[in-house]
Write a structure and sequence with these properties.
The chain has about 80 residues and is mostly helical. Helices cover about 80% and strands about 0% of the residues. The protein has one domain (about 20-75). It has helices at about 10-45, 50-60, 65-75.
């Protein structure tokens, strides 16, 4: 049974697991990019492209959460 406000969607969660695992691998790459970007921004803080790369890495780190949220929203109650 679904929860009262349709937040409980186990089918969407189960279908999203393989894709969330792939997104987890992408987020590991994001962590590496983030660490390198932080080191580069410490060396040259005036470089705008490093800041953009760090922001992109943060979004890569959040990828598994975005994937699971998208999958659970696609399955109706």
């Amino acid at each position: 049974m679904c929860c009262g406000d349709c937040e409980c969607r186990p089918l969407g969660w189960l279908l999203g697991l393989p894709f969330a695992f792939l997104a987890l691998l992408v987020s590991i790459v994001g962590v590496v990019i983030w660490i390198v970007g932080l080191l580069l921004s410490c060396i040259c803080p005036c470089c705008l492209c490093v800041t953009i790369v760090v922001e992109l890495a943060i979004e890569l780190i959040k990828a598994p959460l975005h994937v699971m949220k998208w999958f659970t929203e696609q399955i109706p109650c």
